[in-house]
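User: Teach me something about this protein's shape.
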Amino acid sequence: MKITVKPRIDAAAILQKRGLGASHRARIALAETAVQLAQDYVPRDTGRLAASAEIAADGAQIRYTAPYAKAQYYGTAAQYHNNEGGLRGRLWMARMQADHKTALQKAVASVVGGCVT
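Assistant: First, the predicted structure itself:
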C-alpha cells in the first residue's frame, strides 16, 4: 500500500514566529545584547565613543559613529585612550564576542525559543 503525504507548511510564518523573518527580532536582540556587553570593552575617556553605538534597523550592523571610532578600534589613534583600564581597549567587539559567546547565544535563543547547552 502506497501513501502520499503532502505537508502544508508555511515556512515564512514559522520563521516570523521565531523572530527570523522580516521583523529581524532575533538579529536585533543579538545586536542590542552585543552593544550592552561591549560597554565594558570600549575605550573610555568622556564616554562619547561608547554612546555613539548605533544598531541598523534590521540589526545586521553595529556602528560606532564617533569621529575617532575607527582609529580607537584598530588602535591607530595618535592619542589612543584606555583610561579606565581593565577590559577596555582596541578590537573591543571581537574580544567581547570571544568572552561572552554563551551570553550572545542565550540572547538569540530567548527570542527564537531555543536553548543553549
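Now, about its shape. The chain has six helices and two strands. The two ends are 43 Å apart (CA to CA). If you'd like, I can walk through any region in more detail.
User: That's plenty for now, thanks!
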